[in-house]
């Protein structure tokens, strides 16, 4: 936002509780970007959407330090700290571990359990920390801009929402994993978790009428590579989910690389330019089941890893 350095956009991949890593990384990245770069945008999907919207709101409200504190508050609130929430958390995590190991576990539709209040819990979380009714005042033609991704269940079309078009229900829709949350109605259509769509939205950084970044920093929480061959049912299931989670991300980045190629060949108008892609990755080997884990120690450990990796990432940047 200072305009002293290259323009930067940050893309936050989603992945349930693993997105606490993203929150920790943003706590380090936002002050650096605010001081040394021209911050033009942030995007996210699912847990990444929660991080992106929180960071954008905090940054424009009171600055990068407040945004970091707000990310801390939000994820402390996500953590299961009461006895009932802790017991529910353990139940959900272990059910998923058993299912991933191909142990017969009955999944129940969220529509068949009227007592479940996932929507109410998530909307209450957002309401405690983010004032969506001020987004109109915060959003204007000047960057940074924020974008979150969902999928339209009816049409099968990817859908993104930006700036003052984002509401609490939009963020909920981006996180609405079908086996845990009912679909969310937006503009007369039903929407699900953005993990089925652009995870996270990236091409919008290049195709909108807004200022285009010189660099896109991707916070990636799904492992791109794994050593060895998955052989157990749990290992196969985990790797399959990791590859599925990265499918959309790699398609988005392929689009950026293709635009770079066309720019170098002179095929595109002057408004397009080469965009550098930089990745900041969660390197710990985690299971897919732990995406549901809201244990406070697990959340804080992931946030600390995010801060550590972001510090190393910033050290590696060219001067």
Automatic annotation (TrEMBL):
Keyword set, alphabetical order: Lipid metabolism
Domain of life: Archaea
Keyword Oxidoreductase tagged: no
Pfam families assigned to the protein according to its UniProt record, in alphabetical order: Patatin
Domain PNPLA: 10-206
InterPro entries: Acyl_Trfase/lysoPLipase (IPR016035), PNPLA_dom (IPR002641)
A single BP term in Gene Ontology: lipid metabolic process
PROSITE patterns in alphabetical order: PNPLA (PS51635)
The name this protein goes by in its record: Patatin-like phospholipase family protein
């Amino acid at each position: 936002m200072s305009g002293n350095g290259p323009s930067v956009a940050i893309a936050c991949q989603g992945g349930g509780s693993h997105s606490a890593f993203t929150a920790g990384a943003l706590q380090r990245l936002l002050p650096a970007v605010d001081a040394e770069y021209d911050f033009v945008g942030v995007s996210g999907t699912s847990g990444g959407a929660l991080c992106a919207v929180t960071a954008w709101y905090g940054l424009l409200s009171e600055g990068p330090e407040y945004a970091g504190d707000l990310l801390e508050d939000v994820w402390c609130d996500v953590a299961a700290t009461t006895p009932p929430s802790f017991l529910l958390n353990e139940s959900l995590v272990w059910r998923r571990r058993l299912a991933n190991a191909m142990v017969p576990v009955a999944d129940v539709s969220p529509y068949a359990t009227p007592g479940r209040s996932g929507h109410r819990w998530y909307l209450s979380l957002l309401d405690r920390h983010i004032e969506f009714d001020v987004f109109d005042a915060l959003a204007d033609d000047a960057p940074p801009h924020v974008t979150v991704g969902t999928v339209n269940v009816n049409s099968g079309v990817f859908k993104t929402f930006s700036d003052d078009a984002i509401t609490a229900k939009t963020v909920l829709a981006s996180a609405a994993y079908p086996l845990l949350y009912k679909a969310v109605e937006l503009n007369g259509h039903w929407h699900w978790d953005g993990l089925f769509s652009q995870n996270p939205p990236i091409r919008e950084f290049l195709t909108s009428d807004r200022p285009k970044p010189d660099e896109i920093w991707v916070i990636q929480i799904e492992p791109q590579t794994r050593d060895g061959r998955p052989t157990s049912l749990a290992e196969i299931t985990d790797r399959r989910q990791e590859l599925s989670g990265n499918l959309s991300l790699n398609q988005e980045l392929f689009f950026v690389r293709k635009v770079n190629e066309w720019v170098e060949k002179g095929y595109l108008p002057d408004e397009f330019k080469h965009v550098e892609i930089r990745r900041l990755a969660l390197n710990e080997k985690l299971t897919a089941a732990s995406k549901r884990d809201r244990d406070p120690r697990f959340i804080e450990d992931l946030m600390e890893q995010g801060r550590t990796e972001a510090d190393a990432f910033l050290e590696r940047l060219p001067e």
